[in-house]
Design a protein that fits this description.
single chain; mainly beta; Neuraminidase; 5-stranded antiparallel sheet; about 5% helix; globular
Length: about 375
Amino acid sequence: MVIILALSAFSCTGDPEQDLPESVKELENVTIHEYGSEPSYSLSLNRLLTITDSEEVLFGRIGIIEVDEADRIYIREGARENLGIYVFDSEGTYLTKIGRSGDGPGEFRSIMDLKIHDNQLFAVDGSLFRLQIFELDTFSLVREIPIDPTQLDQPDNEGFWIPTKVHVLNDDTLLMTFMNLTSGMITKSYYKLNLDGDVMSDRIMSIDHINQLSDPVSGSVIFDPFSGIGRSGISADNKFYTTFSDEMLFRVYDTNGNYLRAFYHPFNHSSLSRNEALNFHDSESFRRALQHNGIPDKWRAFENMVLDDENRIWVSTITDDKDTYEWWVIESDGTLLAKKELPRSVFIQTIIRNHVYTVKLDDDTSQWQVGKYEIELR
């Protein structure tokens, strides 16, 4: 059953015992899906290859993957002493490394994001406040774009701004994400920039990203692992999806920040015991902060969200099984396509051309692994 609300005053779900959250009631043009609805397909992920340490490559900390039109794989190496971008062909054969640690042209202090557009690789350096563009025929640096947060319409009390992600809207315009660090909340704000680094728009939107808890004794702030995390992404058809992971509520905007629609799946949250919450971190400061701010009795709905190149949303929902996530594959209108359990140690990074690319740190060998899988829906 699917219910579409045109007016925010109306409330109904597929589960008669479950009321809609206020965040859903206040929205217009929201599609509400039936509680416990079954997916349309079963999903299989068939492993095609694994990339791990070799004589040529020693991974220290990886986490961002991009894939070009030739199915070459670009892997961000984030270890400070070994910063750069490893490049492999479609069969997993090592080709080259782009960049290294440093401040000069083609070098990095941090690699926050990678994007491929029109045979070019865009790399965001949040520490050096710049975007570097590499040409993919030769892997050479072709352009360096400075990013100046002082151009932004930021109030004086909004703390420190760091560029973290980029989306290439077209050949002339970038959509840049800035992380804003304050004492109570980390937020993400979005602006359009041109290829000279000039800000072309007012703030398009701002969303909460991570809640922080305050320790009443030390005054330190600590990431809250139980409340929601703000997730966002831009689809292949340039629609902007935002969500806060305490609920399965997804809002859709255009890239000017205009609200278009939303969809919602009622969700049975996994329970969280007091003992489990207090011992999540072995830290007295964390326990004091949690007790001071209130101990929740349930987990957030999901951990992560990834958009694929077919405008589908992949969401890693949190269940009572602490070893796995149940990944939901959702159409752009919210229709549930498939579910698939994967170990929590496996992180889906990129989904493109019917392939899933994952990152995993192997518990037995302490080696990083990148997996490539073929998607089969049936």
